Amino acid sequence: MLTLGQLKEATCAKSAYALKFLPYVIETCDRFSINTPSRILNFLAQVGHESGGLFYTEELASGSAYEGRKDLGNTQKGDGVRFKGRGLIQITGRANYKAVSLALGTDFITNPTFLGGKNVTKCNEVQLKNAVESAGWFWNSKNLNALADQIDITKNIDTGNNLVVFKKITKTINGGYNGLPDRLNRYKSGLQYFL
Q1: Tens digit of pLDDT for each residue in 32-77?
Q2: Can you give the pTM of this predicted structure?
Q3: What is the distance between the alpha carbons of residues 91 and 101, in angstroms, rounded to a whole number?
Q4: CA spacing 20 to 30 A to 128: which of 54, 89, 108, 148?
C-alpha cells in the first residue's frame, strides 16, 4: 500500500497536501491498477508536475484560450472558460469532461468545479477525490500503465529506453515535453522510496 512518504517524495508535495490526497490516491491506484513500483512512481511524478506538487486542482489561466476549440468539444459559447483544465492531470474541454463524467458516474458537464476548486486548500473532499480519480481515469484511458511497465526503475531514467518511454508518457499527458526536467526530478526524488 502507498505510504505518505512515497506520495510526498514522488510528487514533491508538502506533507499537509500529500496527507489530504493520500486516501484518494490509494483508492485511485487500486481502481486503475496503478499497482507496481514503476506504475505508481511514474503516475505520481507526472501528477506532481501537473499539479505543482499536489497544490493546484484547476488551471491558473482563465480557459478563454480554449474557446471554440472543436478538437476539445468546445462548441458552445463559454465552453473554454467553463471546461478549463481541472483535476490533478488537467482534464480540459467539454468532450473530455463528458468522457470523464461517463467513466466516473458524476456529472462534470453540469458541475465542472466538482473536478477541482482552485487548489488543495480550497477543495472539499468531493473535489479532492474527483481531482485524483480523474487523473487515474486519464492515465488508464491512455493505457499509460503499459508504458510505465517498460521503465526499469533499477536503471537510470536519464538515458536509453527509460528516457524514451518517460518522454512518451510525458507527451501523452502534456501534448509535448513541457516541464520534462521537473517531471524527471520528481521521479528521481521518489525513486528510493519505490526500490
Answers
A1: 999 999 999 999 999 999 999 999 999 999 999 999 999 999 999 9
A2: 0.97
A3: 11
A4: 148
